[in-house]
Every structure is written in C-alpha cells, then in structure tokens.
Amino acid sequence: MSGARGVLAIVFPFFLVACGAPIGVKRMDPTEVQRHLTQSVLSTDDLSTTTRNALFQNDAVERFRSDPEGVIAEMHERVASGQARRNDIFALAELCFYHAEHTNDLAYDRAAAVYAFLFLFPEDPEDAPDMLDARARIAADLYNRGIARGFATGPGGEFVPQQATYAMPFGELVVYFDQKELQRGQRRLIKFVPVSELEVEGLATRYRWSGLGAPLAASTEPLDPKKGYDDFVEPWAKVSVTAVLEMNDVEEQLPSGRVQSRLTLEEPIVSDTIELGGKEVSLETENTAALAYTLAESPVWAREIGGFLQRVGAIQKGTELAALTPFRPGRIPVVLVHGTASSPGRWAQMINELSNDRRVGPRVQFWLFMYDTGNPIGYSAMLLRRALERAVERLDPEGKDPALRDMVVIGHSQGGLLTKLTAVDSGDLFWKNVSDSPFESFEMSDEQRKLVQGVAFVKRVPEVKRVVYLSTPHRGSYIAGSWLAHQAARFIEMPVSLTRLSTDFLLRNQGKVNAQFTGMNSSVLGMTPGNPMIETLIKIPLVPGVESHSIIAVDDPDDPLDEADDGVVEYTSAHLDDVESELIVVSGHSCQDNPNAINEVRRILLEHIAEYDASQGITSEATAAAASASPVKKRTPAEPKRPPETSARMSPPASPAK
C-alpha cells in the first residue's frame, strides 16, 4: 500500500494539470483589450505587442530583461546583414527608445530615429508599411520623439541643431546642418524647446497635426543687436518649427556603422509637407503648445490693469502693433483689438482655433494691437490707424501685395470702438464737440496740431475692408456710466503729453472752446452714455466698401432683448441696424473664447477669404466653405426672442477642418 500511495503522490499532480487546458480565453472589457493591443513604449512603460512578438521570435524575451544592449546589438547585426524581418526593424526602433527611457542614453534615442526612418522608408518601396498598419504611426512617433530627445544636448534639455557627429550604439550618426537654417529675416532662432514636453494650461483645445518631424518652439535674437528687430514680431514670441532628420541609403550604410543625415528646420506656417524618402509627407505640427509657450512668457498680462491706470509717455513703446509670426505676403491681416483693462492674451483661444483651421490659418496672419486702455478712445484709435498705415508702408512700399490691403479688424468692447474708427471719415463732426471756430484759427505747436488733427479729424485706413464688433458699447456702457466707474476713472493717469496738451490748449484758446469741452477724457468717461464722443461716433456710418458684423453677448437668454446685457454692455447699446450680420451668444462680456463667437468669426473670415479669392481669380477651400455656411440673420430689439438653443445659429457650427 505504501508503494501505491507513493505512485499516486507522484502521478496525481500531473493528472490535475492534464485536466486543465494550458491555453484559454476569458471575457474582458473591450476597452482593456484594445488598450493592451495598442500600447507601446510611447504611452506606457511597456513594449507594444508587435515588439514583444519580435522578441519571442528571436528567443530574446528573457535575455532582453537582463541584457537589453546585447539583444539590441544582436538584432542590429541581423538588420545590417539584411537577414532580419521587417518587423525586427520596427522592434529595434521601439527597443532602443525603451532602453533610452530607462538609461537616459541619447545614443539610443538617435538609433530609434534611424531604425524608425528605415522602417518607414525602406530601400524597396514595396516593403513600405501600409497606411493602415498600426506600426507606421508608432514608428512615426518613435522617429519624432527620437529626434526631439536625441539632440536635446543643451541646458535644461534644449534641442540643439548643429553639424556634428553623434554616437549611436552601433557606430556614428553624421549630421549635416546649414547654419542659415537658423536665420528668419532679421532674427536668429535660439533656445529650441520640444513642444511634446510641454503641458498646455489655460486653453480649452490642443491641436496636433500628425506627421513626421519633431515640433519645436524657438526663441529669437536679432542678427544685429545694434539694429534690434525691424519687424512686428514681439521679442517674446516663439517661432514654431519642425526638426526633420533626412537619411538616404540607410540599409547600405548600416554595415559600416556610419550613417549620414541632414537636419533641417521646417516652417509649417510656410508649408505643412516635405519630401522624404521620395514621398511627400505631412509635417508634425503643434501650434497650440507654441502659442501657449509664447503667451506664458510674454509681458501682456501685466499690461491689463497697468495699462488701464498707469501714467505713460505720449506714444510709449508698449503701444504698438505686434505679430506672433513673421509677415507673409499673400496672407490677409486679421487685426485683433482688445478691450478695457484687458490685453492681447485674451485672444489666445480664438487664435488657437482659427490658426489650426486649415481653411483659415494658412490664409491669414494675426496682428495684435496693444494700447493703454485708460487713454482717451479717440487717441487710442489714432494710434491704431497710424500703426496700420506704418505697417503697410513698411511691409509693402511698392503696393504689390493685394492681401495686405484687404484687412479685417476685430475689436472687443472698447476695442470695437477703435475698430470702427479705422473705417470712418468723420469730417469735422468730432471737432464740433470742441469748438464752432475753424481748426486753423487755434493756437498750437506743430506737434500739438498734428496730434489734435489725428484725434478730431478721423480718416479711414484704406486697407481695412471688413470690421467685426464683439460686445461693443456703441451707445456707451452702463457700467462705464456708473458712480463706481467714475470713481475708478479718477485714478487713471493719462499720458503726460495729453495732459499738457489739454491744459495748454485750453489756456491758449480761451473763448473759442465750447463750454462743455473740458479736455481729453479717459476711456471710462468716453464710454459713458451721453458723452459727446460716443454720441457722435454712433451717427457716423462706415465708408462705402467696408462690411461690418456684430457679435453680441447676453448672459441670460431668457431676458427680452431690450433688457438683455452681458454684465457690462446692454444689447441695445451693442446693436447696430446697418451691419451685415448679427449673432447673439449666451456669454458674459468677455466672449472672445466663446465657441459660438469663435465659430461666427470663422464664418466671417471664410466669407472674407472667399470674396478676396474671387477678386483675385483664386479657387480655394474657403470658397466652398463660405458657400455652404448658413447666413446669420440680423435682428432688432423689437423682434421676439428665439428659444435659447437657436439663439446662436440655425445650423451646426463650423469646426476646424483638417
């Protein structure tokens, strides 16, 4: 018996094992299964299914855990000798990236980029991966990330573009780089930051256009420090570029251990494609992160309250036209004018949305007007007109660029009043608020005369062809007319030159000035209902040929229109009878980042681009998009209110087009 028991003790466990199937399946959440099937080193701390398959096929699953460099070297020899499967090349790219992640060895990052490029662009085009092959997208991202990290040799992990020979696990990567790639007009690109490493805050959307290359955000410095910058791009603006590493005959070069390549810095704003491996491919583009990085390091936020209260000079340096990208002939300027106690940074969401719309972004260039919002409205409007006139004169003195002369100006709140003052001819209507005597009869210095004439006798900017008002107090703001606002206005210190001018003007011309004129007032007093300036401006029509649109915010969609407001401006003040379209959005006063407001600006710009194209004999996507867009109906305060769900548009809003 004891012998039999011993036999059972030995046999029974094997019997139990034999009763259970060694292979099986079990139901799981499909999301978990999909996550497992699509994982890679790019999104997890584990390898893709494809690479794990390759390790098994090479009998290297356990060996990779203990000797990753040995396995990579072994697989490299197979690839270099032409004995490897296509899947081994893909696996090598991911294995190198995985090892670089765990060792911070940039040599393996660079190798990942080389293997990924070889997988995507094989010597035999028949071996190229299918467009639906999941490995192709992973390989593209391994290439992009391998470049971004493989050349991050600067302080704080900055990307450093330079001609040099770099180490790789199997030898060397020779990189040719033309220093002229760093020059952009009168600027030199410096301090390149990979945007894949930036977390974006404060923007509701983030756009990434998939392709090849490492998206970077670059700072700039003037080529000649003595001359400084002579364009409208702010010193703090970041230039969006994509680094591309181009290689030829990689399969032939691998056995020698020396691969030659060329590094270029492409500008997606100029072209979003590049030829690689005999194919035209899209560039990887990440404008949202570059925009956020630009605004995060800009001084615009400090100007919001400071520019409302601060005492400054006559035309201070901060009152100017600024651009976030270099000037491009053939692109229509869209000028954005912020409102009171605000800054250009408040346009960020709208710029992010529109610049990433492939029907709009490549056709326009955004310009930002910065000004001290406590200054008199007429004075700030004069500065805007002068800035636009100087821009045209400097950028296109010979008048060869019709797009530059087809501007759209968009203004929010007080900025909408400045916007209107780019497109009117006032004659002597504003001057009559000052005096009934001829302007020429007044005693002033030449400098003062030029300034007063610029404020009191408004002449349109001929290049402005369309204006858009957002939450604009055309008849004044009840907030500006409040007791509290007038108390705040007492703390506004106007420019020294304006204060001196008003005092000198009144002293030297006593008896000629109307009794109600007390000098130039701050913007708060200028927007007070009943102020002569605002009362005069509402009566002046736009010059013929300029089209206008209104976007009006109301914070309670159930209020009748004659009682509705956005918390600052009443609907009845913002409404104009003679605009081409009017859109009401449910929002507070700061509606620049409201989706419906942005979609309406998109519709208007598509319409504008289509009209420009028609005048130039051009056919474009914008033409078709504008034709299919639903028009926005004009409304009057007497019209019954629509239900809230249809108070914006009667058709689904347009979305960014790829």
SSE inventory with pairings:
Layout: H1 2-19, H2 30-38, H3 49-57, H4 61-66, H5 68-80, H6 86-103, H7 106-120, H8 134-150, E1 164-168, E2 171-176, E3 183-184, E4 187-194, E5 214-222, E6 239-247, H9 250-253, E7 258-266, E8 273-276, E9 279-282, H10 287-296, H11 303-309, E10 320-323, E11 332-337, H12 348-355, E12 364-370, H13 377-395, E13 407-412, H14 414-420, H15 446-456, E14 464-470, H16 483-489, H17 496-508, H18 523-526, H19 532-537, E15 547-554, H20 571-574, E16 581-586, H21 595-616, H22 621-628
Characterization of this structure:
The chain is 36% helix and 15% strand. It has helices at residues 2-19, 30-38, 49-57, 61-66, 68-80, 86-103, 106-120, 134-150, 250-253, 287-296, 303-309, 348-355, 377-395, 414-420, 446-456, 483-489, 496-508, 523-526, 532-537, 571-574, 595-616, 621-628; strands spanning 164-168, 171-176, 183-184, 187-194, 214-222, 239-247, 258-266, 273-276, 279-282, 320-323, 332-337, 364-370, 407-412, 464-470, 547-554, 581-586. Strands 1-2-7-6-5-4-3 form a seven-stranded mixed sheet, with helices on both faces. Strand 15 (547-554), helix 20 (571-574) and strand 16 form a beta-alpha-beta unit.
Oligomer: single chain
| Name of the CATH homologous superfamily of the largest domain | Alpha/Beta hydrolase fold, catalytic domain
- Give the second-level CATH assignment, the architecture of the largest domain: 3-Layer(aba) Sandwich
The CATH first-level class of the largest domain comes to: Alpha Beta
Short descriptors:
22 helices; elongated; Rossmann fold; 7-stranded mixed sheet; alpha/beta
